[in-house]
Amino acid sequence: MERTFLMVKPDGVQRSLIGEIVSRFEKKGFTLVGAKLMQIDSTLAEKHYQEHIGKPFFQELVDFITSGPVFAMVWEGKNVISVARNMMGKTNPAEAQTGTVRGDYGLSVGMNIIHGSDSPESAAREIKLFFTEEELLTYDKVI
Ligand code: CMP
């Protein structure tokens, strides 16, 4: 089954949106297989955002993601990578549709509430960066 990495960013945590965001993905039918509240240090931030090294907003990105706790998650389900991206909405909240996480709650392209892997390759890389195998649970839903 496909897995993706999602993360409630510091703005989402501080605005008490963890429950709302988890609820959206639960109600969609995806399965939460790992989650933790954590503080990202600059080493992890630079690894996570390695594709953006050299871009003008890179330092701002690292400063923001390390500014307070994030809620890191791994979700499992059919087409979860692309469906979760649709549920998140466009990167810039001003362009994200109402009904998406960023469209409903995001303030700016930097403070856009949530991160989600954009491909199977980045999902595999990001899951490994944030979670050990032991922290991820595989289980069948019986009810
Ligand atoms: P995210 O999905 O976490 O992946 C990279 C992030 O870079 C993106 O969300 C945005 O928050 C951020 N980002 C993209 N473009 C800009 C920009 N022009 N200025 C600041 N941050 C940006």
TrEMBL record:
Pfam (any one): NDK
Keywords (A to Z) from UniProt: ATP-binding, Cytoplasm, Kinase, Magnesium, Metal-binding, Nucleotide metabolism, Nucleotide-binding, Phosphoprotein, Transferase
Annotated Nucleoside diphosphate kinase-like domain residues: 1-138
PROSITE patterns: NDPK, NDPK_LIKE
Residues with Phosphoserine modification: 122
Coiled coil regions in record: none
Reactions accelerated catalytically: dZDP + ATP = dZTP + ADP; a ribonucleoside 5'-diphosphate + ATP = a ribonucleoside 5'-triphosphate + ADP; a 2'-deoxyribonucleoside 5'-diphosphate + ATP = a 2'-deoxyribonucleoside 5'-triphosphate + ADP
Main EC class the enzyme belongs to: transferase
EC number: 2.7.4.6
Phosphothreonine, modified sites: 91
GO CC term (a single one): cytoplasm
GO BP terms: CTP biosynthetic process; GTP biosynthetic process; UTP biosynthetic process
Subcellular location: Cytoplasm
Binding, ATP: 9, 57, 85, 91, 102, 112
Molecular function terms, GO-annotated: ATP binding; metal ion binding; nucleoside diphosphate kinase activity
Chief location category: cytoplasm
Active site: 115 (pros-phosphohistidine intermediate)
Entry similarity comment: Belongs to the NDK family.
Record function comment: (Microbial infection) Catalyzes the phosphorylation of dZDP to dZTP, when the bacterium is infected by a phage that produces the substrate for the synthesis of dZTP (2- amino-2'-deoxyadenosine 5'-triphosphate), which is then used by the phage as a DNA polymerase substrate.
Subunit structure as annotated in this protein's UniProt entry: Homotetramer.
This protein's name: Nucleoside diphosphate kinase
Organism: Tepidibacillus fermentans
